[in-house]
Design brief:
The protein has five helices and no strands. It is an all-alpha fold and 131 residues long. It has a domain at 20-105.
Amino acid sequence: MTTRPTVFTRIQNAAKQLKRNITALYFAFRDPRTPWYAKALALLIIMYALSPIDLIPDFVPILGYLDDLILLPLGIWIALRIIPTAVMVDAREQAVKHQRIGGPLGRIGAALIIGIYLLVAYWIWVTFFRH
């Protein structure tokens, strides 16, 4: 007799798979065999996944979680379709190794996002407040 996984177990597995796919997208982004348009999409997805700012704030009832539950997986799905298969095979292998030994991906992502936010803030300041 086999038992069905609980809802909590399924959610945990989906979260692990999402994290693994985002890590694999990072490695595919760094691969020179990845076309520029796939790199651009992968970068946007990685930045959005690591960003503390959501397209729709989470406090908005129901819609707040829409981006996390639909937009992010949809973006990952599209990116996985346009990145060459051989690149994704290698990127997934690197992602598995990365998850076993840990690595600087979180710090790199945070630094990237902070850098972009600083550039946007500087642009706003120069454009609207500097006389």
